[in-house]
Each structure stands twice: as C-alpha cells, then as structure tokens.
Amino acid sequence: MTNSDSINMKKKKRKNKNVYNLYHLTIKNIKTMFRDRGQLIWLIGYPLLLIIIFSLAFGFSSSRTDYNLVLFNYDIEDSGISGNPANYSLLLIDILETNLSNSIDIIGTQDNFTEEEAIELLEYEKIDAIVYIPHDFTEKIYFGMEPEINITTVPDQIAETVIYSILKQIVDNIIIYHNGVNPSKINSEMELETVKITYFDSIAPGFVISGVLVCISQLALHFAEEKKNGTLRRLSTTPVPRSYILFSGMFSQLIVAFFQTIILLICLLIFGAYFHPNANILLLILIPMLFAFTSLGFGTLLASLVQSEETAGLLAWFIILPFQFLGGLFFYFESPIMKFVPTSYAAHAMRMVMVEGINTWNAIGQDILVLIGFGGISTLLGIILFQRKTAIL
Fold first, then answer.
1. Could you give all domains of the chain from N- to C-terminal order, each with its CATH number?
2. 375, 221, 363: which is closest to 292 by C-alpha?
3. Which of 49, 143, 144, 365 lies 20 to 30 Å from 353, alpha-carbon distance?
C-alpha cells in the first residue's frame, strides 16, 4: 500500500467518524429537547394560541357597507340610433361610479377581465356580483321596450337585494326620464357554489411560518444551556469539529420543525382554514422547512454570541417580533422594508400555494431562492463566529 493510499484511507475513516459523531450529537440534541416538556409546549402552544385567537376574532364574516362588482357592458353595437348608440348604458355606469361610489365599486369591465376570470373571482367571493348589460339595452329604452340587466351574485341575500335595488332604481329613473313607460327588468341569480375567503383564511399560512420562526429562540436557548452545563466545553476537547456541533443542533431543530409544521397544518384544517383544492401538500411542508433553515441561520448567529439562557431568550425575540409583523404574517402592507424581511417571502409563497392554489415556479420561485440565500448567508456567518473559542466558553 502506498503512502497516498494510506492517507486517503485515514481521511475516509476520519470523515466517516465525523459523520457518525454528527449523527449521535443530533440524536442527543433531539432527546434533550424532548425531555424539556416546557420547550415542546412552547413550540406548539405559541402558534396554536395564535391560531385560536385569530380564528375567534376573524374567522367569521362581518357586515358589509359596500359591494364590489365586475361589469360587462355589451351595449356598444350601432342599432341605428342617432348619436351615441350606448348612451343609456354609459349613463348607468356614470351614475354608479360618481353618485354611488360609496356603495358600489366597479373593479373591472370587459376591458381588463374575461367572463371566466370574473366568474372565478365570484366563486371565491373576491367580488360580490357580476353585472351584464345586454347589447340592446339603449335600443329598448329608446324605442319604449322593456330593457334587461342580468346579475349574478354571491350567495348572500343582502348583497343580492342591495345590488338589485340600486340597479333597478337607476334604470327605472332613466326610463322615466326618457319616456315614462316600460319599467326595466332586472334578472338576478345567486352563484351558490362559492368559497368565502375570510381574513382568518388569508393569514392562516402565516401561522405556520410564525411557528417555525420560534426555531431562532429554541436553537439559541439550546446552545446557551449547553454552555451553562459545560457540554460544549467538553465536546470541544474531542476530535469533533465545532461546525459539526453546530450542525447537530440545526439538524435536530429541523426535525422538530418538520413535525411542528405537520401539526400546525392539521390544526389549521381542524379550525376550518381554507386550503385551495390545487394546493400542493409537499410545497406546504417544503416552504416552512426552507424558512426553518433560514430561521436556524439566524439562530446560529445568536448561538455563537449569547452566554446565558436569559440573554438568548431576550435577544431572540428582538428578531422574532419584527420578523412576524414586518413580514406581514398577520396583516399585509406595502413597504420597501418587506424586501429585507425573509418572513415576507415565506408568507407570500405559503399564501400562493395554500389559498390561491398556485404552485408554479414563476409564482414562488423568487421566494424560495431568497429564503435559501438568507439561510445560507446567516448560517455561514454563524459557523464563522462559532469557531471562536469564546463562543463555547
């Protein structure tokens, strides 16, 4: 056997031994965490408490004072009437947009929506009604005939009645103004198979991310306890690389985060949170796991700096709270600062998959790459800092 072969065998044995040590350190950390029942209760209890509170507060529909609709005006064909062939349909729309803007909000027309897109919005109750003005609306008023308007509303008797009454009153006034005869005919029906997306449904994906975010605190607390007990000091005297000590803590937390994600998704189902029929279950698990990697990256930074459990817990929440609220987990807002908060990317990806049912790379690819980038950079910095002698003393 040559010297090079002997050196390669020694390197291979050393590598295998390090992997073996990493495995056993990870198992040791998992057992330590599961022995601490208070920590386990906190990992599940905190996000579960948020789910219960927000479910009770926002899980039900509230009263409405304004109604959104998409309007399709097909009264644009020339019927031989002098002047504007769509005079009365345009008058109707103008009254809705100017005099009744506090009650009726026309969010789109055939210029920016297809009928299929409008129907999908109605099915998920993102609008309250679709209004169709037929091609002969102005013509029938002009020649003293009975004009018609067709309405499809959400399964809400109040919404149907309000929208019907408003349109009926406006059209009848237009007819009376023109010739005083033949009141309008408003055909109204409800779209019965709809999905009501409540405020609780829209923020439900954020609860999973919020639960995983606690990993920052747990990893920092774990290593602070290891320092206090002298475990890290003893491990530093063994051939195990310090990076492996750090990785073992991260791997154990990732395993806990995986089961935590499963439990929280089940809890959301139990509490009636909406899951789109096209939601990809694997992505609903993968996205929180990627964010767990990001959170643990920040946890490694804290683990390399703190010396006591009290300091670890305090500093961790200086990261967790801004990430929760500035990342839009519980409410959405427009701000440039969200671009620098990893929770905003995780929450967006979860909402796209869970609520919208959109699983394409174009929709969530950027979010995934940003999460990997945040996690990689923070973990690398944490490893560098953890290599210092003071990090384990």
1. 3-58+198-391 (no CATH), 67-190 (3.40.1710.10)
2. 375
3. 49
**H, E, C per residue of 290-353:** HHHHHHHHHHHHHHCCCCCHHHHHHHHHHHHHHHHHHCCCCCCCCCHHHHHCHHHHHHHHHHHH
Task: Provide the b/e sequence for 287-300 (b: ≥16 CB within 10 Å).
Answer: bbebbbbbbbbbbb
Using CA atoms, how far apart are residues 211 and 164, in angstroms rounded to an integer?
45
Strands 129-133 and 148-153: antiparallel
Q: Which residue type is seen at 201?
A: D
**β-sheet bridge partners, residue 149:** 186
Specify whether the backbone of 27 is left (phi greater than 0), alpha (psi in -120 to 50) or beta: alpha
Q: Each residue of 295-334: pLDDT tens digit?
A: 888 888 887 777 777 777 778 888 888 888 888 888 776 7
Tokens matching residue 359: 């699983």
Q: CA-CA distance, 204 to 264, in Å (whole number)?
A: 10
Q: What percent of the chain is modeled with pLDDT above 90?
A: 19
User: Residue 343's pLDDT is what?
Assistant: 92
Tokens representing 184 are 């309008």
Measured at the alpha carbon of residue 129, what is the angle toward residues 173 and 162, in degrees to the nearest 5?
A: 50
Query: For residues 61 and 214, which has the higher predicted lDDT (pLDDT)?
Result: 214
CB 243 within 8 A of CB 386: yes
Both tokens of 252, joined, read: 């154990």
- Tokens 């910095």 -> residue: 381
Instruction: Give the pLDDT mean for 187-200.
Output: 70
